Amino acid sequence: MARLHSSLILLFLCSLSRLGFCERAEQEGRDEVSKPLYPTHFVYQNTGHGIGSSFSLQYELGYGSRESRNFTQEGIEQGVRSRLQVQDWLALEAFGGLVIDTTKTETKGYAGSFEVIGRLLSQNKHHLNLDLGGGYIYDYRGDHVPRVRLTLSYTYKKLDMALGSLVEIPVGSAGRDEADVVTTLAFSYGFKNWLRLGLETGLEDIEGFFESEEAEGGAKTIFGPTLAIIATKNIYLKLNTAGIYAFTSNQKFEGNRRKPDAFGFLGRLVLGWTFY
Questions:
Q1: What is the DSSP string of 182-201?
Q2: Contact between 111 and 98 (Cβ < 8 Å)
Q3: CATH: 2.60.40.420, 3.60.20.10, 3.30.160.60, 2.40.160.40. Which one for 2-275?
Q4: Which secondary structure element, helix H or strand E, spans residue 23, and what is its range?
Q5: C-alpha pair distances (Å), 96 with each of 39, 57, 138, 139, 156
Q6: Which of 111, 121, 179, 204 pairs with 70 at a CA distance of 20 to 30 A?
Q7: Cβ pair 144, 138 in contact under 8 A
Q8: Closest Cα to residue 67, out of 42, 21, 102, 25?
Q9: Virtual CA dihedral for 137, 163, 223, 65, nearest 10 degrees?
Q10: How many CA atoms lie within 13 A of 152 on its CB side?
């Protein structure tokens, strides 16, 4: 699987090389290539900001060597995300995906979500950006989960910073927490108009620090770099590689389900197109 992922990434980068995207970016000018083809430079953040009256479609490929509910599951995840930017401050998003068990070569689960995200405060007027989102996900466990998202962000010259929080409330799901909270922090720096490199971190299930038994594997963190590239006027690429560390392991495992290792790895590739 690692060889397959490397081949896909290499093939895509080679195709970009043939397009000469570096030279094209410089020729098209700063205003053109700096358009926000994606609403965020990050993989695990989300905002309502974008270019009004545009539509984005992106393919997402994820791999995880350790189960982490909110970021991916053990195995290969493939999904398609669509985004309609109604106004500069308002977006509608939908996602559909599946997870394939790498050991048995079979589908482990399906997921689908819908979300409305809006920008409530803008840095130009209020010194920082504030985005609020609300929606629903049918997750890979087969549970129905309403969710609320809040993101604070700030831009200083070529540096972007974002602090996010995602709250999910599983409905009628046995063996789940009453509410799940994921907190994320991310930084990104623009080395070129078309190239950014950042760092993303996340923390979930922090109640595992305080409870003798935590329903979803205990407190854990994710951390790793994110590469973002504007390939052409309409195409973008984002790649994140991250480590996972479980601080606690106070979950009961039934049947043949094995206890995961404390350390793990996640990788996620996002290839998108934005149409104006």
A1: EEEEEEEEEEETTEEEEEEE
A2: yes
A3: 2.40.160.40
A4: helix 21-28
A5: 19, 12, 9, 10, 34
A6: 121
A7: yes
A8: 102
A9: 0
A10: 7
* pLDDT tens column, 22-34: 444 444 444 443 4
Give the pLDDT band (50/70/90) at residue 250.
low
Element counts in the chain: helices (H) and strands (E): 4, 12
The confidence score (pLDDT) of residue 117 equals 97
pTM across the whole model: 0.80
Structure-token pair, residue 134: 């609300």
Strand partners, 148: 134, 167
85 DSSP 8-state letter: E
Q: For position 30, what pLDDT does the model report?
A: 43
Residue ranges of domains in the chain: 2-275
Residue with tokens 């410089």: 26
Paired strand residues for 244: 222, 264
Task: Point out the least confidently predicted range of 124-133, 157-166, 172-181.
Answer: 172-181
Expressed in angstroms, the distance from the first to the final Cα of the chain is: 35
In this predicted structure, the answer to whether residue 193 has a pLDDT above a threshold of 60 is: yes
| Three-state DSSP string of 63-76 | EECCCECCCECCEE
For residue 138, which of 207, 219, 79, 182 has the smallest C-alpha distance?
Answer: 79
H/E element, 77 = strand 75-87
Report the mean per-residue pLDDT for the chain.
80
In percent, the amount of the chain with pLDDT more than 90 equals: 45
- What CA–CA distance (Å, rounded) separates 52 from 85? 5
